[in-house]
Design goal:
It contains four helices and four strands; from the N terminus they run E-H-E-H-E-H-H-E. The protein is of the alpha/beta class. It has one domain (3-123): SGNH hydrolase (Rossmann fold, 3-Layer(aba) Sandwich), CATH 3.40.50.
């Protein structure tokens, strides 16, 4: 019997954010073909390195993995936006260090997930679609 396991953060472990609506794992279970199962191993607040612990709890019959993680890694460094700096080069150096750390952690996570030798889907950090601040919405005239 196919068994999908969700790994990562609150993108999947989102019950706390949907009030009385269905969370992701419930929606997935409702849409999977008959005979398929879904398990939530993702943990709200997890960072990329936390997926290793989630992989340790994989059900024996897991057949497919879906991973969405990384947003909390970025949030962990949000304070960089408020730090002072003496030069642009200094800021770019800090950002480069953060990127290198994230790349290392993400690659390690991917190696662990792919090392399970199961079909694996990876959902990357989404690109926000903020409205263009240069465009002003004018009210419609009658």
């Amino acid at each position: 019997m196919p068994h999908v396991v969700l790994l990562g953060d609150s993108i999947f472990d989102n019950a706390a954010y949907v009030a009385h609506g269905p969370d992701v794992v419930r929606q997935l279970r409702e849409r999977l073909p008959e005979g398929w199962r879904a398990t939530l191993n993702a943990v709200d607040g997890a960072v990329t390195s936390g997926v290793e612990r989630q992989l340790e709890r994989l059900p024996q019959d897991a057949s497919h993995l879906v991973v969405s993680v990384g947003g909390n890694d970025a949030l962990r460094h949000a304070g960089i936006l408020e730090q002072g700096a003496c030069s642009v080069a200094e800021v770019l150096d800090r950002i480069s260090d953060i990127r290198e750390e994230f790349e290392h952690d993400y690659c390690t996570m991917l190696e662990g997930a792919l090392g399970q030798n199961l079909p694996t889907a990876v959902c990357t950090i989404y690109e926000a679609r903020f409205p263009d601040p240069r465009v002003v919405d004018l009210p419609q005239l009658p």
